[in-house]
Amino acid sequence: MGVSSIISVMLLLVLINLGNNIKGIEAFHQVYEKLQSQSVESVNHLHRSAFHFQPPKHWINDPNGPLYYKGFYHLFYQYNTKGAVWGNIVWAHSVSKDLVNWEALEHAIYPSKWFDIKGTWSGSITLVPGKGPVILYTGINQNETQIQNYAIPEDPSDPYLRKWIKPDDNPVAVPDYTMNGSDFRDPTTAWFSKDGHWRTVVGSRRKHRGIGYIYRSKDFKHWVKAKHPIHSKESTGMWECPDFFPVSTTDFENGLDLDYAGPNAKHVLKVSLDMTRYEYYTLGKYYPNKDRYVPNGESPDGWDGLRFDYGNFYASKTFFDYKKNRRILWGWANESDTVEDDISKGWAGLQVIPRTVLLDSTNKKQLVFWPIEEIESLRSSYVRMNNKDIKMGQRLEVKGITPAQADVEVTFNVGSLEKAEPFDPSYTYKPLDLCRVKGSNVTGGVGPFGLITLATPDLEEYTPVFFRVFKDTSTNKPKVLMCSDARPSSLKQDRGPLKQDRMYKPPFAGFVDVDLTDGRISLRSLIDHSVVESFGALGKTVITSRVYPIKAVKENAHLYVFNNGTQTVNVESLDAWSMERPLQMNNGAT
Ligand code: DQQ
Q1: For 309-326, how does the pLDDT look when each residue is reduced to its tens digit (9 = 90+)?
Q2: Whose CA is nearest to atom 7 of ligand 1?
Q3: CA of 25 to the centre of ligand 1 (A)
């Protein structure tokens, strides 16, 4: 092959890879103008989640706000009032005392004024002393320009915060001549600094450079753009839903509020990339005097960066929970079914189970995420397995619970790493490519081993979540891959060749930073009919997947632990629970 053919092949591979990446999680709310107001006749419950946050029908996307206020957790979210695809977006509003049961309230914000007549898009809430909660959100004006507005509660003493006013002195920030009016959105929760200013970050881009503009205000009404963005990065495209917050480097139990300015903290900047439909974050240092954030360079600042979740998860947002001193993450998991099926089932999208966010105490180089403890109140029937060896090719069924609606925690011990396959660090393999090639049935040395969720007994349909342990040939240390593979999840046929007519069944994957010195690695999966949220090594690597089996549904779904590696793996402990439905999940919402 000549040099030019080699270059063409390489280019083709890059393009294919780029195509795959851009396809990403297909999370984006595509605009289907004809479909967005198609009313929902009835709701199909086959794949509806039981204990995840969902309204009774219609489309949802980004979590907005969240806030703890006067005894209630408030969740706002982007919601189509008229149908099951993206469109007609309002800020829907629900409240909860426990983050498990939710009461739907009237919509908080909807297009009604010149400064948001064409859209009320994502934003945040800040608790402003003396004023109460203030919403910052993106409004779309008549010219389709994205501008930033504020809204205040009609009655801040109402713990439900039912009614919101959008004052006439809006907008508070408009794009200037250097900025792109169609890419200027999603203001973050603001933080107060010692210099007497509030600050917020608004996502944007200049050509292919993703940008976070920082704005300052003394009174929360007049906002001035700082001279430089807080941070920007070439080739990352539009930054949607930025999130910026501190984490403690010494306290691994509590979260920090945004205005924390003491020692022993790092900052996190997360952005949601419109180009790839994935998110990534960096850890770094915030210089308040310069209005700058500088990533610490320990992880990539770009497409290959660390992720809150390596699966179907987007537009996420954290908030500080004053009740329990923790930082909580919400994120949206879109459908990956066909558009026609979304419409016929009458709903699309859910919010993942809220997760606490902390710096990883073991390496201090990444975050760890864990489902909020409140979700455990839904656990009912319980089974346990102890000290069971699983030999190569073995699969043990977890019986006695409802596998389609379950919480399962398992600790594996892999014993020796002698048989682990070599991992050449010079491979440019991305975890996703590795998982695509080394699926759950491809025999390895140590692994693949893990859980088989939403399965038929003959494995016609199944969603495996598993680890595969390699040995880094340069350091001799383990390199652990975690996969959640939707490829075998459903027998359902595509409706046609177009993207919208195909179910998206990707393998999702990430590496897990563990040294396995004691041989142990844990896996927890929350399984809820069409969503599987998995937490590797106590939340170091998290993967959410959406799947639509047609046989492995409800009481016909099964759950197994398995091992397809030559090395026997020990299940030190496995605890599994059926999960109940919350008593109240947005009943009666419109
Ligand atoms: N969704 C909102 C936008 C945001 C995007 C519109 C992210 O504000 O950028 O529904 O999913």
Answers
A1: 999 999 999 999 999 999
A2: 315
A3: 15
